[in-house]
Amino acid sequence: MRTSEVVLASLIVILLATPVTAHEPKEYTMLLKEEGVTPCGVQYGILVATDYLFFYNVDSRENTSHRILIDADSDGIFNGADDISTAWLYPSCELNETGQRIDPDCQVTELVLLDPSNGLIPGNISMMHQILHNGTTHDSYLLYTSPSPRDS
């Protein structure tokens, strides 16, 4: 009986001594430019749940804004009830004398959380990049990410 207690205690010590690593949430930056998005996608294994996609409009053309539509339910439709989209992102927002945005809806950047609660992990995420320039919208379907299915 004594031997089995020693073996059990040894196993418990070994299990408790196993190092555990946690994944700190990361932001993966995607620049929205006149020519498109840089980078144009995310390689498999880079992203895990609790990471963010950080979209930043750096296109300085006048009367131009960008947004990203995300097909969260993988049905090929980017504006469905379960899908996600960023706000229209502008190159800058006009500020008042105290540094606050005059238009509270004006945004230059937006973070999108990758999390099962919004349907974005695991699996491929299809995104559409839209550019609104002088009242005309242009679509391009070149953003694809493939997050790692591992847990954070």
Written account of the structure:
- There is one protein chain.
- The chain has one helix spanning 2-17, and strands spanning 27-33, 36-38, 41-42, 52-57, 64-71, 84-85, 109-113, 125-133, 136-145.
- It has a five-stranded mixed β-sheet, with no helix packed on it.
- The chain starts with a helix and ends in a 7-residue tail after the last strand.
- It is elongated and about 80 Å long.
- It contains one helix and nine strands.
- The relative contact order is 0.23.
- A hairpin with a 2-residue loop joins strand 1 (27-33) and strand 2.
- Helices cover 11% and strands 34% of the residues.
- It is mainly β and 152 residues long.
Shape: elongated
Structural class: mainly beta
- Helices, by number, come to 1
Strand tally is: 9
User: Rounded to an integer, what's the Rg over CA atoms?
Assistant: 22 Å
Question: Beta-strand percentage?
Answer: 25-35%
Order of helices and strands: HEEEEEEEEE
End-to-end separation: 40 Å
Weakly predicted, low-confidence segments:
none
Main pleated-sheet profile: 5 strands, mixed
Entry summary:
This protein is mainly beta and 152 residues long.
Provide the descriptors you would attach to this structure in a database record.
152 residues; 9 strands; mainly beta; 4-stranded mixed β-sheet
